[in-house]
Amino acid sequence: MIVTTTELFKQAYGKYAVGAYNINNLEQTIGLFRGNLGKHQSNSEPEDPTKAAPFIIQISRGARDYSDKRFLEAMIRTAENVFPEAIFAVHLDHGTEEVCYDCIDSGFYSSVMIDASHCPFEENIAITRRVVDRAHEKGIVVEAELGQLGGVEEDIVGSVKLTDPDQAAEFIERSGCDSLAVAIGTSHGAFKFSGSQSLHFDCLEKIQQAVPANFPLVMHGSSSVPQEWVQRINNAGGAMKNACGVNEEEYIRAAKLGVCKINIDTDGRLVWCATHREFFRDHPDQFDLRPPGKLFMANYAEYIQHKNSKLGSLGQLESVREALK
User: Which residues of 161-193 are buried (b: 16+ CB within 10 A; e: fewer)?
Assistant: First the structure.
C-alpha cells in the first residue's frame, strides 16, 4: 500500500527512523520489498512480523533517466501487487522544480523532494513554495532541504554548510514544506569522512527546538559504508580506499531528536558490487546474469533488515498497519 511520508512520520516521530532506499532496477526492487517484509529467498515466503518494517522507495533523477521512468514505476506497481502487505511511500529524491512537477502530475508519487539548497535562502523558499502549492493540490507531500551536504549528488557538487536552526524555523513557516532535510555532518557518496567523525548533534538539537513541535526532519547522505562490504569489493578486485560512512549507532540518537527519514543509497550499491564481483571471480566460466542477481536479492534483503534494526523500524510494520486502519 502506497502512503505519504507524512503518514509514516506520524508513527515514527521520536521513536525510530524510516529507511529511505534508492532503487534503479528489478533486483533492487525485489530485494527491498522482501527485506522490508522479513523475507529472504522467495516472494512467497510468509511475512515475518518481527523483521517487517515500513519503508520509503526513493527514485532519483538519475534512476528516472537510467532507462525510462515508466519502467521503474511499472516495477513498483507490480511489486505492490506481488507484496500487498507492504506499506511504503514513493518519493522523488533530489528533484528540480521541473522534475517535481512531472512527478506530481504523474499521479504516481506520494512524496517529492525539491532540492533548491544550492540557491540563496530567499530563492530556496520561493521555489519550494511553488512546488508545495502544486503538490498539496493533489495530496502529495513535499520535502525540502536547507544547508548543504558535501559530496556529489546527481550533477550537484555540494560544499558543506550546516543548517542554521533559526533559518530552519523561518524556512518551514514560509515555504510550507512537510519535512526538511538538514545538514548536520553527513555527505553523499562512499567517502564521507576521513578518520572518525560524529554527526553534529548539537546542531540537530537546536534545529529540533527551533522548528514546530513534531516536525519531521530528514538526514541525507546517511549510508554507513560498511567496511565488510568494502573489503569484499576490494578482495574481489575493487579499489575502494579510505571509504567511510555514518556510524549506524547514531541513527537512533538522531531519530530521538526528530529525524524521521534516513536516506541510504551507497550501501545498496556496495552490496550489489560485492555480490557481482565475487560471483564472477569465483565462477569465471559463467555469463548468466540471473545467478548473481538471485544472490544479490537475498543479500540485499538481509542487509535491509540489518539496516532497519539500526534505524529502529524493524518490527514496526504491524503497528503502522493498525494506525492506518
Answer: ebbbbebbbebbeebbbbbbbbbbbbbbbbbbb
Residue 289: which region, alpha, beta or left (left: phi > 0; alpha: psi -120 to 50)? alpha
* CB-based contact 279:286 (threshold 8 Å): yes
Residue 93 falls in the annotated catalytic set: yes
Q: Residue 40 burial (CB < 10 Å; 0-12/13-18/19+)?
A: middle
pLDDT one digit per residue (tens) for the chain, 325 residues: 999 999 999 999 999 999 999 999 999 999 999 999 999 888 999 999 999 999 999 999 999 999 889 999 999 999 999 999 999 999 999 999 999 999 999 999 999 999 999 999 999 999 999 999 999 999 999 999 998 765 444 555 455 689 999 999 999 999 999 999 999 977 555 454 444 456 889 999 999 999 999 999 999 988 889 899 999 999 999 998 777 788 999 999 999 999 999 999 999 999 999 999 999 999 999 999 999 999 999 999 999 999 999 999 999 999 999 999 8
Which residue among the candidates 93, 115, 178, 267 is catalytic per the annotation?
A: 93
Element (H, E) at 56: strand 55-60
Residue 61's φ and ψ, nearest 5 degrees, are -65, -35
Q: What are φ and ψ of residue 173, in 5° steps? A: -65, -45
If we measure between CA atoms, which residue out of 246, 243, 196, 253 comes closest to residue 221? 246
Does pTM top 0.85 for this prediction? Answer: yes
